[in-house]
């Protein structure tokens, strides 16, 4: 998302920024909205950066209409929101998930056993299940104010009962194209948090909402160009990375660069190898001369070589010795 009032909000999957489409800035309501693709089954994190030198703010994060996190953000600080804390000793990560549509499809009869299929109807769902106003949205609300430090340290208590179901049921008549929702990863343990200073802030300053949909849905609506389908898959993590087939045995490994002494100064000159096939050979030789000159400066033995004339010692003569010159 573009920086607004010194606050930047981005979402990453596998350490890579996900694309954003149709960014809209509303100066009247101080809101920025955009569309983002959903990668079902992938964990994601929200990164909030305060790029100002004096603005103090507080951030509220809501997923699928449920408030999950509250963070204080001082000048120059960054907060990474990637999990919620249902209790003081547990946490769950945020995961893109696919909802399960619920409705009554037509019944089918089979001649062999006359079995019929049916599912739960919209009328049989609770009012909470029929309310899909907040589904498929990642919302970050920023409030500007003043951070006050409490002299009595207390636990942050940033844990609450997150009302995000294990498997989201989406009614057919109310989904309005929303099939991608936010889920939670498995429950993991964490140590009890130490007491910290309480910080407070106030006054609403901005809001950012990110509705997430599948790439296929965004393409069907004309939001995502068709040629970008293959470019938006996040890279695989190191544990899922495929073998490249390169032999890295000791015989085939590249030679290591020679170590230089700590007191040796490294030249700051940077040589750019930007040579096309049509350039002259003279430029290549000139570049080779520059490389040799730079390497000579790095080698300390070159500086110690001096041009000297070696003087041989004179022969010693004994007293009374006769030298025959014939």
Automatic annotation (TrEMBL):
One protein family per Pfam: DUF7918
InterPro entries: DUF7918 (IPR057678)
Domain DUF7918: 6-178
UniProt feature, compositional bias: Polar residues: 110-119
Transmembrane regions listed in the UniProt entry: none
Tree of life domain: Eukaryota
Span list, region Disordered: 92-126, 225-266
Name of the protein in question: DUF7918 domain-containing protein
Species the sequence originates in: Leucocoprinus birnbaumii
């Amino acid at each position: 998302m573009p920086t607004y009032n010194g606050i930047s909000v981005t979402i990453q999957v596998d350490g890579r920024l996900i694309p954003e489409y149709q960014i809209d800035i509303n100066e009247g309501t101080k809101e920025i909205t955009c569309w983002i693709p959903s990668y079902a089954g992938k964990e994601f994190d929200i990164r909030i950066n305060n790029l100002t030198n004096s603005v103090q703010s507080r951030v509220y994060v809501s997923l699928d209409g449920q408030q999950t996190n509250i963070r204080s953000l001082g000048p120059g600080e960054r907060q990474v929101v990637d999990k919620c804390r249902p209790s003081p000793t547990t946490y769950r990560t945020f995961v893109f998930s696919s909802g399960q549509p619920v409705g009554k499809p037509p019944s089918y009869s089979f001649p062999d056993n006359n079995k019929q299929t049916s599912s739960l109807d919209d009328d049989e769902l609770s009012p909470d299940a029929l309310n899909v106003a907040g589904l498929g949205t990642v919302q970050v609300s920023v409030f500007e104010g003043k951070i006050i430090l409490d002299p009595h340290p207390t636990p942050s208590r940033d844990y609450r009962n997150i009302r995000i179901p294990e498997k989201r049921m989406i009614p057919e008549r109310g989904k309005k194209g929303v099939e991608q929702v936010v889920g939670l990863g498995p429950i993991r343990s964490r140590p009890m948090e130490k007491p910290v200073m309480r910080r407070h802030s106030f006054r609403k300053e901005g809001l950012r909402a990110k509705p997430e949909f599948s790439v296929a849905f965004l393409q069907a609506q004309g939001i995502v160009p068709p040629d970008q389908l293959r470019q938006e898959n996040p890279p695989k993590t190191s544990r899922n990375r495929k073998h490249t087939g390169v032999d890295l045995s000791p015989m085939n490994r590249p030679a290591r660069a020679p170590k230089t002494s700590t007191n040796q100064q490294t030249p700051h000159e940077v040589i750019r190898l930007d040579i096309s096939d049509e350039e002259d050979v003279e430029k290549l030789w000139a570049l080779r001369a520059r490389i040799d000159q730079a390497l000579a400066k790095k080698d300390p033995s070159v500086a110690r070589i001096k041009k000297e004339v070696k003087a041989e010692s004179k022969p010693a003569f004994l007293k009374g010795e006769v030298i025959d010159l014939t």
